[in-house]
Write a structure and sequence with these properties.
By secondary structure, the protein is of the alpha/beta class. It has ten helices and 13 strands. A seven-stranded parallel sheet has the order 7-6-5-8-10-11-13, with helices on both faces. It has a two-stranded antiparallel sheet with strand order 1-2. Strands 3-4 form a two-stranded antiparallel sheet. It is globular and about 60 Å long. Bound molecules: nicotinamide-adenine-dinucleotide. The site of nicotinamide-adenine-dinucleotide has 28 residues, from helix 2 and helix 7.
């Protein structure tokens, strides 16, 4: 059913109509009030052959004044997307999901072998893909690669800040270098890339920034302090950019998955190199595919924040509804740890 349609002088013009509650966008050549029938009879545009999302999921809603009030992406096809940390795990999956939606890819990572395999897979899907080695802990390298990309493409429509690393261990034994390394990759690199690309993204009619944050950016536990700090910061940055540029038509989303079994745990830096970092149990984890599907949905629908997985929902809602409960659980488990820390200090003094 046609719920609303907005336009002042539409005779003989192509207009975008907001149709129905869930919203589907149609362009129709109209003549006065025959607009209704013309728009209804317009066949739906074909869905991109690999796409898991129909185009009817996307629209630009119009307020009575004709201003854009809700920007959603009409199509990812032929858009240019930059994805960091694309050689493995969640980044790889998001890159390939974007390729299936028809986006051309510019992929960054330090893992060159992983990059070439994603590039080959994306090309098989039928899009153009370029892989570039870039160490995100090096600001000069980031600037060099971004200007190289802009020379090649001239612009970019979708930015996915995905690359991330973790450190596991007691915060009091972390060095300044370990803090710097983690904060550079997880927080300062996304800020730098966004800052350098914002002027170009704002010029594009349909641009989006997707920051791969984490439930660890909403709820904190022990022994991952640097990781939590970087992800809380990234969510704050995402919200600030959305508040500042959302009204100018830029889409900005924070994707917050719960635990996912990727190399993040294997490659996690740790205070004790001989001890492996504990992995979350499989049943608590969500799949990589669920995360990349949520990422594509964020881009199409311009989601503010998207939680992925049951644990992410449970923890986020517990914190929002009863913040004291999580704090109580953390403090109760800390009592036993206090004894261990005191023992460690005594042993150090004795030595
Ligand atoms: N795995 C999880 O449980 C989980 C949960 C929530 C959010 N996340 C977030 O998802 C993102 C991707 O993590 P993942 O789980 O796929 O991990 P992953 O280790 O599988 O992938 C991370 C990618 O980043 C790349 N990378 C690491 N350091 C880099 C650097 N200095 N420069 C460029 N690239 C670098 C790695 O080579 C790798 O390809 C991270 O931001 C992570 O914080 C992960």
């Amino acid at each position: 059913m046609l719920n609303t349609w907005q336009s002042l002088d539409v005779r003989g013009k192509a207009v975008i109509l907001y149709l129905g509650g869930r919203g589907s966008c149609r362009a129709a050549h109209v003549d006065g009030l025959t607009i209704t029938r013309a728009a209804r009879q317009e066949p739906r545009p074909p869905i991109y052959e690999h796409s898991t999302f129909s185009r009817s999921e996307s629209c630009t809603a119009m307020s009575p004044g004709g201003k854009r009030v809700l920007r959603t992406m009409k199509s990812i096809r032929h858009k240019q997307a930059l994805v960091t940390g694309a050689a493995a795990g969640i980044g790889r999956s998001i890159a390939l999901a974007l390729a299936r939606e028809g986006a051309d890819l510019y992929l960054l990572d330090i893992d060159e072998a992983g990059l070439s395999s994603v590039v080959a897979e994306a090309k098989q899907i039928g899009v153009s893909a370029i892989g570039e080695r870039c160490d995100l802990s090096q600001p000069a390298e980031i600037s060099r690669v971004l200007s190289q990309m802009l020379q090649q493409w001239g612009h970019v429509d979708i930015l996915v800040n995905n690359a991330g690393v973790a450190y596991y261990g007691p915060t009091h034994s972390m060095t300044a270098a370990q803090w710097d390394w983690l904060m550079k990759i997880n927080l300062l690199a996304p800020i730098q890339i966004t800052r350098e690309l914002l002027p170009i993204l704002l010029e594009r009619p349909d641009a989006h920034i997707l920051n791969v944050c984490s439930i660890s950016g909403l709820v904190a536990g022990g022994r991952f302090a640097a990781y939590h700090t970087s992800k809380f910061g990234l969510i704050g940055f995402t919200e600030a950019i959305r508040a500042e540029y959302g009204r100018r038509g830029l889409g900005v989303s924070a994707l917050c998955p719960g635990p996912v079994l990727t190399n993040l745990y294997k490659s996690c830096a740790s205070a004790k190199s001989d001890k492996s970092v504990p992995h979350p149990p499989r049943w608590l984890c969500c799949s990589i595919e669920a995360v990349s599907k949520a990422a594509i949905r964020c881009i199409y629908r311009n989601k503010r924040m998207k939680l992925v997985g049951p644990l992410a929902h449970l923890l986020a809602w517990s914190k929002w509804l009863a913040p004291g409960v999580l704090d109580l659980l953390n403090r109760a488990s800390r009592k036993r740890k206090k004894v261990a820390v005191a023992g460690e200090a005594e042993a150090r003094r004795a030595a």
